[in-house]
Design the sequence.
């Protein structure tokens, strides 16, 4: 367990961050037209969004606020919690890096304008892409990432999976496993009660990621050997790969049956539905709601520990994703009944 006094500097910032979060009732009130949404956001830390002209610009302004908070918090956390803090932005970098890798493999031009992680001031991916001919070929891109472990390792593993399967879908599918490894590494920096309490926030999300990865693997008809390469090294949240592999081997031909068989394997998430999309939505929603609830519980005692960092950034990320969904839906002319189920409230 870390010394609580080492968190004395960051806790006031976390409390302030919590105080700036928009209440769920106010999030519900954000509804089209877009002018009304912008007017409401002018009274929040997202006021710069109101100056944007389209959904892409708006989304970038929202995500910038998230990265600014990570920059602020990471300046004051003790060494043991730095990887946990940065993981909340690094997962976006991994997502974008895998998209780039797939584009290179597919022979498509890399569209940098859609890579939101490049907006982060500490973006390692930005440094990689600044190099000459960074996306000219697979080997060049991967080699340039070698100094950034959190990007290099996922790229290397995804490339191995592609070489094994010859299916480019496996590159972007691997994101779910890569994120689990990212947070597993950050949790390994912690110990004792600090780790236990932090896992209560992180594990619901990781269970959701792994469960979604299994359902998607079934839909993509990925063989067990690919999952074994991708998931067997994951050591997080007491998830048993032996049990996972046994269930997948038995039920992988039917995503619905797979979802049913996975129900008792996870501690936090709910898996239900009669269609693939219903099963995936139940996983996504239940994992997020449990993580949100556990984050709120952590704040009731304001623990001087890394669990408060995880709680703060989890709640902020849900808020950011909610606002992004509302703005994008408004530009797409969706009504509230269509987009509200996407929100985590």
Sequence:
């Amino acid at each position: 367990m870390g010394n609580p006094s080492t968190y004395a500097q960051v806790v006031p910032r976390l409390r302030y961050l919590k105080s700036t979060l928009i209440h769920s009732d106010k999030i519900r009130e954000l509804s089209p037209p877009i002018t009304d949404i912008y007017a409401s956001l002018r009274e929040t830390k997202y006021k710069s969004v109101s100056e944007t002209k389209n959904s892409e610009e708006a989304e970038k302004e929202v995500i910038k606020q998230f990265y600014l908070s990570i920059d602020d918090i990471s300046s004051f956390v003790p060494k043991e919690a730095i990887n946990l803090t940065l993981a909340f932005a690094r997962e976006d970098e991994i997502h974008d890096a895998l998209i780039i890798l797939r584009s290179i493999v597919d022979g498509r031009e890399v569209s940098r304008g859609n890579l939101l992680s490049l907006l982060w001031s500490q973006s390692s991916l930005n440094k990689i892409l600044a190099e000459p001919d960074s996306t000219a070929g697979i080997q060049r891109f991967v080699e340039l990432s070698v100094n950034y472990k959190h990007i290099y390792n996922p790229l290397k593993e995804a490339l191995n999976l592609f070489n094994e399967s010859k299916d480019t879908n496996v590159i972007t599918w691997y994101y779910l496993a890569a994120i689990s490894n990212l947070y597993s590494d950050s949790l390994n920096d912690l110990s004792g009660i600090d780790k236990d309490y932090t896992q209560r926030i992180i594990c619901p999300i990781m269970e959701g990621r792994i469960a979604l990865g299994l359902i998607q693997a079934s839909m993509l008809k990925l063989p067990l050997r690919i999952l074994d390469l991708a998931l067997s090294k994951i050591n997080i949240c007491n998830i048993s790969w032996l049990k996972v592999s046994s269930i997948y081997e038995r039920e992988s031909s039917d995503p619905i049956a797979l979802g049913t068989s996975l129900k008792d394997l996870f501690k936090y998430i709910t898996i239900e539905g009669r269609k693939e999309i219903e099963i995936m939505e139940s996983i996504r929603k239940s994992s997020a709601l449990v993580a949100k609830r556990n984050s709120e519980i952590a704040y009731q005692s304001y623990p001087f520990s890394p669990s408060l960092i995880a709680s703060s950034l989890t709640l902020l990320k849900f808020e950011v994703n909610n606002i992004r969904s509302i703005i994008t839906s408004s530009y797409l002319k969706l009504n509230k009944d269509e987009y509200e189920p996407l929100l985590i409230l």
